[in-house]
User: Fold these one by one.
Assistant:
Number 1:
Amino acid sequence: MEKRMILIVASLIILSFFFGFIFSKISFTGRVVQEQELGKSYTWTKAICNSNNECFDVKIVCEDGNAVSIVPVSRVVQHSSDWEDPRDDSEKLCSMLNGSGES
């Protein structure tokens, strides 16, 4: 009885390694990000500030290098006079990833 139990456990361990190896070679969802064209559609945030450094964040949705949606996602915040947005300071809203420079 004890030998049979050891044999069953060892068989299950070997089968699990075998299936793990097989399924590591077959990828169901692992390449979804690689298959998308990164520059076609993406979303990012940017602070929009006035001359008094009163700022609010907006979410920018870009498709094919054009802004299709700009939505405020925060309230107005007063920053110190020397504050700068640490994110990309590009004036072009949707040229960040596609390099076209046209937005």
Note: The CA atoms of residues 28 and 55 lie 43 Å apart.
Number 2:
Amino acid sequence: MRNILFISFVLSLSLFLYYGCEEEQRNSEEGYIICGVKNPDWFMNLIEEIESDSLYYGGSIIYQHKYKDTYFFHLEIPVSSCAYCRIYDCDGNLVEWSSETEFQDYLDNRTNETIIWP
């Protein structure tokens, strides 16, 4: 009986965390809301680029992170030798960190990691 209660609790907590996250950023069948904009051109172009080259981008994932009250989008490409080279801001600009310290701060303090594609 305890196992059933524990499993029910874990499932309920998982569902709460999934549906309780900021829905504004979550993808859906109707499209993607990125920083309050539905299907921004830069994001749709990025998805098109990924889907057009499955050899290079196969298994790629786009994550959303929040850092210092701002959303960032990390394109993880499994075959790339550069793990964090493709991080975008809300406008689709590649992020250029001013220093290794700032980049490390981003890695250490980002929150709300969510897979938004695929």
Note: The chain has a mean pLDDT of 81.
Number 3:
Amino acid sequence: MAKKDYKLNRFPDSFKCVFELWFDIICEYTKIEKEDAIQYYNERANVGAFCAALARNNITYLEEYVCEKGWGDNKGNGRTDLSFYFRGQWYVVEAKICKGKGTWLSKFKSSIDAACDDVHRTWQKQRYSASIGMSFVVPEITNK
């Protein structure tokens, strides 16, 4: 596999409010559904919880929409997981779920690489200020 050359940036500190609400939403769900957790569902449920945090912060967003992806002969229709407008900038997001048995670090790396590859192929990303690859890590719980 070729080495990925993606730029890793921190979110602006002003974005902290979204991450805090996202965590709160996950906790709220778990309090209601005591033997369940959002993290164990697919990426749509996890993106949905993230969008709830965006909405609670009055951030405009659009999720799971048709767009054109790729370039040249590899161009075609696809779906983008999420885009949102925050403090004067548009962000485009592609997300993957990371779960299963095995080495977590290698699974996470594969998952985040796939999300970054996918967001890179999003043709519309050219009009966005930033593209984001997200990976939702699902912990494995075993009974011993």
Note: The CA atoms of residues 102 and 140 lie 10 Å apart.
Number 4:
Amino acid sequence: MGGANGERAEDFRAETQRRRDAGTGGRPLPWDGGGAVAALAAAVLLACPGKALASEADDPGIAVWFLGPAREISHSTSASRDTALLRMLLLPRPVLAGGGDFGVFALRAVGVSWRLGFFGMLELESDQETKAFVGTPQGDIRFWRGLWGYSVACSLDRLAERWLGEGSALEATLSFRHESEHYTGSNDGDEGTDHSDRPDIGNFWMPDLAVRWRVGPVSLIARYQHKIFMPDMFYTHGPGADLTVRWHLWDYIHPFLSIFGEYLFGAERADVGRVPDAYLVRGLLGIIVPSSYGDLQIFFSADVGHRKGLAVFTEEATLGAGIQAAFF
């Protein structure tokens, strides 16, 4: 695997090294504390129960509330690695993630819902396969990335139920997000690894359109998203799509299948030349255990494409397993 994109990765590394050797400076790993702040804020929001100022029972025309889901159509069953929830991948390598996608304000009127949301997550990933299980998967975790952002979502509640039936939804969302990639050195004092030749995701806008269609005991979610990166980033744009099928088989067991695909187009930069493209196709197959607090998901996974974070130049195909919990 590799081809032209692999050659671009080698050229990208070589150009970065050449500039460092020539004294023109390498790109330092970014640290703005955004990921840590996002995770802390998400934890605070999770501890606070939502409070509706007016319910539809009180006023069928208008409802306003604080703290709840950021979207009418939840992103929690997506196979995307950028889904903000509590996640532990057991195989093929340890990956631990924590975060949330919370609505901080919502307004429903004349059959349309508006939500203002906050998104934040941290993800830690090992560069080695799982060595053993001692309560959690054991591995040398050195890669990590932080994401945070905001969103505005508009759900056409009345129109969706009229067109598609009860329990269905149509929603458009616009998000602004920041992502940074990081590396933690050895606690044993070993010599560190220079990863400054890796591209950084940075800042981007992400509009998405989603539909949820409920047909009997089966709900189908389809979503199209498109990352539009700010100027001077290492990528230009990145289309992506989600498809999730959830079978409400029993009250406490819902089998599900989720497929996600994304392709990031590398930018042409004056300092390092053409940044290699990156893609990922990922699928989840498992069961959901629903509760009044949220969903517990147990799944097998299959990935084809590039890894995330500072390991983005690694292209692979893997099978894995994991568990995750979503509150919205």
Note: The chain has three helices and 19 strands.
